[in-house]
Specification:
Elements: H1 4-17, E1 22-29, E2 39-43, E3 54-55, E4 60-64, E5 70-79, E6 82-85, E7 97-99, E8 104-106, E9 111-112, H2 117-120, E10 125-133, E11 136-148
Antiparallel strand pairs: 1-11, 2-4, 3-9, 4-8, 5-6, 5-7, 5-10, 10-11
Length: 154
């Protein structure tokens, strides 16, 4: 019995190590828009395990360059032809969310995916942040993709 415990622990460690990590990183913002952007998104690289079926980067910041506050109304992820809505985990993660003029704020992001992050981010995906400035409704975009765990960032 005493020999079985180290063997079982070793087997568990090997099985856990079979799901390596990956890097999900931002490639470019606002690729489909011409001119300077008034609202920009910065997605910090994250390193999930390839089998995870949720995407929740620690730091997604939105910068408001308007001279008035903006109100973020919703956030979506479009990947492999599927549109995912932000999942509210608590009252503090809900939209609408106001960002003051000239300020940058970290926003809550959580998406439950239909597939693993490895398959979801094997092609570029689009993070959409819908916002209202005065009476105008607009969308800011960030493009993200997956790569190897120990890759050099572009």
């Amino acid at each position: 019995m005493k020999r079985l415990i180290p063997f079982a622990l070793g087997l568990l460690l090997v099985a856990t190590a079979c799901d390596p990590g990956m890097t999900i990183y931002q490639t470019n913002t606002n690729q489909n828009v011409s001119g300077p952007e008034r609202v920009t998104i910065r997605v910090e690289a994250s390193h999930p395990l390839i089998g995870e079926t949720w995407y929740a980067p620690d730091n997604v910041s939105v910068t408001n360059s308007f001279d008035k506050p903006i109100v973020i109304t919703r956030v979506e992820l479009v990947a492999n032809g599927t549109t995912y809505q932000h999942k509210h985990m608590s009252a503090k993660d809900e939209y609408p969310l106001t960002i003051a003029a000239g300020k940058t704020q970290v926003i809550p992001i959580w998406f439950d995916l239909n597939d693993s992050v490895n398959r979801t981010f094997n092609a570029p995906a689009e993070l959409r942040v819908y916002y209202r400035e005065s009476r105008n409704e607009s969308v800011a975009h960030a493009f993200i993709v997956g790569g190897p765990l120990h890759m050099k960032m572009p």
